[in-house]
Design brief:
The protein is of the alpha+beta class. It folds into 2 domains: 2-67, no CATH class; 76-281, Fumarylacetoacetate hydrolase, domain 2 (Alpha-Beta Complex), CATH 3.90.850. It has 8 helices and 19 strands. The protein has helices at 25-28, 36-40, 44-56, 84-89, 162-167, 173-177, 192-195, 224-231; strands at 2-8, 11-18, 21-24, 66-67, 76-80, 99-103, 108-109, 114-115, 124-125, 128-134, 150-157, 160-161, 183-184, 189-190, 202-207, 210-216, 242-244, 266-271, 275-281. Strands 1, 2, 3, 4 and 14 form a 5-stranded antiparallel β-sheet that branches. The chain has a 5-stranded mixed β-sheet with strand order 6-5-17-10-11. The protein has a 5-stranded mixed β-sheet with strand order 8-19-18-15-16, with no helix packed on it. The longest helix is centred in the first third of the chain and has 13 residues, at 44-56. Bound molecules: manganese (II) ion. Manganese (II) ion binds next to strand 5. Residues 78, 80, 127, 129, 158, 244, 246-247 line the site of manganese (II) ion (MN).
Length: 282
């Protein structure tokens, strides 16, 4: 099942995407929560109830404006250097433990939203990533139970201002990654039953139709269960938290000549079984 959030008068609402049509879940079954964040908090049982409601519901009429699947996550966690070839093209050895950083929720953007290139950076780069959305939260989640805490998966784009990330005093990793609109993800959340093996999905980034990253999540150094177990030793994971899990090789800063995003560029992140995230730069 594919689940989305869309803009409505009272805020965001959860819908299922079936055959290109959107079914509002709470309208189909008023005992279901209104938002996708509240729905994923119910864990696998909530997803089962949502699937039943989606079958019985009626499609929304008129234009639907998509939001990011969780438009307001409490945490946007990110993993750096999680593909061995990307670590090497960045000039470092693959790390022995996961490297976590974060973005603020103000960086979140939806499919078809604009990526705003800030005048403060001349080196905005692209990074295609598999994004995990947390369902049931928890702390000290054991690796063996970690996959049960995943509500679904989305294509994501870790937009990165390299001049801030790498060249500022002390390396402003956080600030370079968290300009507004630097965390687009979507268009939909794909539930685990439909996503297939999350560690065996083709992942691509295309810039203006040209493929610049082309890999598979089989190349992840730290698998999703290890990431969830590792970070939940430190902080409680909450329903709707998102984790950007790292990018494969082929980023713009490592190319000769280097490639950075320009106004008018269209970036697409496609992940097998999950769909295509598209954003234009301005
Ligand atoms: Mn990244």
């Amino acid at each position: 099942m594919k689940l989305v959030s869309y803009a409505a008068a009272g805020g965001s609402r959860a819908a299922a995407l079936i055959d290109g049509r959107y079914i509002d879940l709470n309208a189909a079954d008023p005992t279901l929560p209104i938002t996708l964040k509240e729905l994923v908090a119910l864990g696998p049982e909530g997803l089962t109830r949502a699937a039943a409601a989606a079958k019985a519901g009626k499609p929304l009429a008129g234009d639907v404006r998509l939001l990011a699947p969780i438009p307001d996550p409490q945490k946007v966690l990110c993993v750096g250097l999680n593909y061995a070839d990307h670590a090497r093209e960045s000039g470092v050895e693959p790390p022995p433990e996961p490297v976590f950083f974060c973005k603020f929720p103000t960086a979140v953007a939806a499919h078809d939203d604009v990526i705003r290139l800030p005048k403060q950076s001349a080196q905005v780069d692209y990074e295609a990533e598999l994004v995990v959305v947390i369902g049931r939260g928890g702390r000290d989640i054991p690796k063996e139970k970690a996959l049960e805490h995943i509500a679904g998966y989305c294509p994501g784009h870790d937009v990165s201002a390299r001049d801030w990330q790498l060249n500022k005093p002390g390396k402003q990793w956080l600030l370079g990654k968290t300009f507004d609109t630097f965390a687009p993800y979507g268009p939909a959340l794909t539930t685990p039953d439909e996503a297939g093996d999350p560690h065996n999905l083709k992942i691509q980034l295309r810039l203006n139709g040209k493929t610049l990253q082309d890999s598979t999540t089989a190349q992840l150094i730290f698998k999703l269960d290890e990431l969830i177990a590792y970070v939940s030793q430190v902080c409680t994971l909450s329903p709707g938290d998102v984790i950007f899990t790292g990018t494969p090789p082929g980023v713009g800063m490592a190319r000769k000549p280097q490639v950075f995003l320009k106004p008018g560029d269209v970036a697409e992140v496609e992940i097998e079984n999950l769909g295509t995230l598209r954003n234009k730069c301005e």
